[in-house]
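Translate sequence into structure tokens.
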Amino acid sequence: MNATKIIGILLIVGGVLGLVFGGFSFTKQTTKAELGPISLSVQEKQNVNIPLWASLIAIAAGAAVLVVGTKK
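Result follows.
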């Protein structure tokens, strides 16, 4: 399997995952204050939304890469 097929498959899988889940979230820990041995840290939950159009473009681009990659 060559690199173009792998890239095409990854684009399609990423686009489908973007359609199914619509985004992802992660927790970011930041240190707000340090007073001697005492440290105050805060965990913030961040959400990243993946737009529908980005998922559709990724699927179309993956399919195009697969079609063009097989013509050689």
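Note: The mean pLDDT is 89.
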